Here is the input.
Amino acid sequence: MRRPGRAEERCNVNVQYRAQYLDLAGMQNLQMVSRPVDSADHPARGGRDVAVIGAGIVGAMTAGALLRDGHRVTLIEPGEPGGEQAASFGNGAWISPASVVPMSTPGLWKKLPGYLSDRSGPLVIRWRALPALLPWLLRFWWAGHSLPRVQATARALSALLRDAPERHLRAAAQTGAAGLVVQRGLLYLYPDRAAFEAEALSWRLRHDNGVLARELDGAALRAQVPDVEAHYGLGLLVAAGAHCLDPGAYVSALVRQAQAGGARLVPARALGFAFGPGPQGKRLVAVRTDAGDVACQRAIICAGIASAELARQAGDRIPLASERGYRVVWPDAPVRLSLPVMPSDGKMALTPTRGGLRVAGQVELAEVSAPPDWRRADLLTRFARQMFPALRAGPRPGLASAAPETCSAEGRAASAAAPASRWMGHRPSTPDGLPVIGPSAQHPDIVHAFGHGHVGLAAAPATAELVADLLAGRTPAIDPGPYRADRF
Here is the structure.
């Protein structure tokens, strides 16, 4: 069957979005201001000068999509692409079409008092941060107070996630890093059927959005996770799911590919924007950074938790909170695990990666500047040891690490010692669980692409395509309406 062309498969026209870009399409020869970081011209290929603020997974993917459209791209990133400063570095490494379930669901408000008092649960709110977080929390409750709202959110997430594994497999192959993305499925673990049925709404939302899952129990379950604690008696296998063996290296490879395609990388922190007069009001002329001004005609904000302040300077007040997440890694875990798993009673991702067994999770709502509470990482460690008895035992030579691809021919001695590393990062999260993707209400030459919360890795390719379509004035394949900045 012939694959539909771009014009045929792009529906749900958002006239206002499209008009904003078509009206601006003629703006050329914009005046440069202040002192540019690098005045060297890009190769003349047409298109616009676009500054992509942030070189995490969303920024890296967006840069690639814009280069393919012929734009001249500058990436602005204060740290090493793929480095520890980014949420991309330490996430759970899942690429899941099943991540359509928003955190806020009907009845959640009844659990909030417990989250404030239980310091060992998967979601913790620091008391000191509560006054500042209260407006966000009220919006968060409202976003999930009714089933229709939750269903709409799940549909909007599905539009970004449904083909995420395939998109990432293609992207990794194109970067020369095909081995970094693997598709072995994702396994959700339950102690028993009652625990599974307690999450009936989650699985209904997944089913309604085309996510297929196969039940495993008995010998079939043990074949997938032979070393898991015996009290887990039921698994739901999402065979379409994939994961990344090294998210940081993957982001770094994507940025290198963008640079090879003509993108510049400016090691600087974006501070704001410079505007000049234009036919429809103020036009963007530069991104201001701590290393000088970067001249541009368009700017894409995908700067993680720092995006809210940049969006405010563009005229949009986005309620963005940091869902602080934690991660620990066992380099040589004595556990046979070929695919990622998530226990229903722990709500954390245990993923075999190139660096070892990665255990990532926890949601801590606190001030961005607050120091890490490493007790959250200790909880991940303790729960992983409860799941896998081998992590509580002494060294067991001869077992492969959690990432069999990295073992030597002789195999390495595995150890059940404490994890070798721990990390805390900021998930930039909106209260309704949807990212902000689309033009600023006041300055349409500034485009938002942030706030992905728990799905940044998985949603990055679709986000990049949507941004590229909006910038080009094409009718997007994905309806941008649910992600608009002015929905708040």
Remarks:
- Residues 186-239 form one domain.
- Confidence is low (pLDDT under 50) at residues 1-45, 394-414.
- Residues 318 and 488 are 7 Å apart (CA to CA).
